[in-house]
UniProtKB/TrEMBL annotation:
Record-linked CDD domains: CE4_DAC_u1_6s
Domain NodB homology, first and last residues per copy: 213-335
BP GO annotations: carbohydrate metabolic process
Domain of life: Archaea
The keyword Calcium appears for this protein: no
SUPFAM superfamilies: Glycoside hydrolase/deacetylase
GO MF: hydrolase activity, acting on carbon-nitrogen (but not peptide) bonds
Keywords: Signal
Originating species: Natronococcus pandeyae
Any one Gene Ontology cellular component term annotated for this protein: extracellular region
UniProt xrefs under InterPro entries: Glyco_hydro/deAcase_b/a-brl, NODB_dom, Polysacch_Deacetylase
This protein's name: Polysaccharide deacetylase
Length: 428
């Protein structure tokens, strides 16, 4: 039994019984191309093994795997940008994946495209794929286009040196006025950099339910004292729930101890104000900087510390510092936590992978307003993460976030949720 299961069991006995991701090299040109295939579009809308069978009838029809890339005949590289081939050595589920390769001749990017024989209605769903890359990190994009080549684009930042892993994409760009009830083209794009070479594996093109009206989570990362001195009173004014992800090994025992991190008493006051107290690595360091022989302790020890200090509810949740992770650290987090946050995207749908829930940042008042307005328009879950609140711009961004969020929440356009609500209600 892992520590997460042990902790959940112990709690039950004691109680009696988830910024636009822009990038250069992107063209909006979409030339027509005819497919030679006469087969139907139909995806294989298979259900996720993690889905609750009792809820299946409540999901939109498209939810599940749409294309498993076992047959690549319907996919082709747009304008011969990059190359596409099957790779039987890697797969998410099945016998192969699709390998996308860029080269200096393809201007450092690769695009693959599938035209559907019949349009699909994506108004109530969001797309995702399982993906992996041979580069350090990068941004992958999914476009859903109508017959006029108007599209919505979903994006996510991914890490290198990972196996094929399901990723939660958020909607980050719209071109024209796409008719989402009649999508006829699927396109996957990876830009590696000017004339850069690289490889991208994709598998399991799937859909998850979208969420309308949109949801927002407020998170404070790093365990900084300003989360107590600046954020707490502001959050109490609006009565919004929030989460503090704290590096447990960097908390101060006493205000007299020099440093900019929370004290134990300050953390208790946050918890008393109904903040969720979640976990970060005990050191607060990005996990790629931690020696392998210390990695498990750095990731798992915060569970014991949080539960021992009375923060059992938050011990279910983890935030990757700087959204960076490795295969080993990801697998440890997946084993011991119910929900984890990494990535850089807004308005994601249900979590197809609960251990890579996306988050965004509001570094200015204008960015805060745009994030919330976008979530009102397109739905989904937008998690807004704040870090050190030690300059006027950061505080102005927080103030604008809260004021704008109050306006939208009062109008019924947005709802503020907690990690527990996401884990219990919005995971597919």
């Amino acid at each position: 039994m892992d520590r997460r299961t042990y902790l959940a069991t112990g709690v039950a006995i004691a109680l009696g019984g988830c910024t636009e991701l822009g990038g250069p090299g992107e063209s909006d040109t979409n030339d027509e191309h005819s497919s030679d295939s006469d087969e139907s579009t139909g995806g294989t809308a298979s259900d996720s093994d993690d889905a609750d069978d009792s809820d299946e009838d409540d999901y939109p029809e498209l939810v599940g795997t749409f294309d498993d890339f076992e047959d690549l005949d319907e996919w082709w590289t747009w304008q011969d940008i990059g190359s596409l081939q099957a790779d039987a050595s890697r797969s998410y589920d099945g016998s192969q994946s699709a390998l996308l390769t860029s080269s200096t001749e393809s201007d450092g990017q690769v695009r693959i495209r599938r035209e559907l024989d019949e349009p699909i209605d994506v108004r109530d769903v969001a797309p995702g794929i399982a993906t992996a890359t041979d580069t350090d990190q990068g941004v992958v994009r999914i476009q859903l286009q109508d017959e006029d080549a108007h599209y919505v684009e979903y994006s996510q930042q991914i890490q290198g040196d990972m196996p094929l892993t399901r990723t939660n994409f958020g909607i980050t760009r719209v071109r024209g006025e796409p008719d989402l009830s009649k999508v006829v083209v699927l396109q996957i794009i990876r830009w590696f950099g000017d004339d850069a070479e690289g490889q991208q594996w994709v598998d399991d093109f799937h859909f998850v339910p979208n969420i309308d009206p949109g949801k927002v989570m407020l998170q404070f990362h790093g365990g900084y004292e300003t989360h107590y001195t600046e954020a707490l009173s502001r959050l109490e004014e609006y009565d919004f729930p929030a989460t503090a992800f704290v590096p447990t090994g960097r908390l101060r025992s006493d205000p007299a101890v020099e440093g900019d991190r929370l004290t134990r008493d300050q953390l208790d006051e946050l918890a008393a104000a109904n903040w969720t107290i979640g976990a970060q690595p005990a050191t607060g360091m990005p996990l790629g900087n931690v020696d392998s022989d210390r990695l498990e302790d750095v990731i798992v020890d915060p569970i014991d510390w949080l539960s021992g200090e009375g923060y059992e509810d938050g011990a279910r949740f983890f935030a990757f510092p700087a959204s960076r992770y490795t295969e080993e650290s990801y697998e440890l987090v997946k084993e011991h936590y119910d929900l984890a946050f990494a990535g850089r995207s807004r308005s994601q749908g249900y979590a197809g992978n609960p251990h890579l829930c996306s988050r965004a940042t509001a570094s200015s008042p204008e960015e805060a307003t745009e994030l919330l307005d976008w979530t009102v328009e397109w739905g989904g879950i937008t998690t807004i993460a704040f870090h050190q609140l030690d300059d006027p711009t950061a505080l102005e961004a927080l103030d604008e976030t809260l004021a704008s969020l109050e306006e939208h929440a009062s109008a019924g356009d947005l709802e503020v949720i907690t990690p527990a609500e996401m884990a219990d209600e919005y995971v597919y």
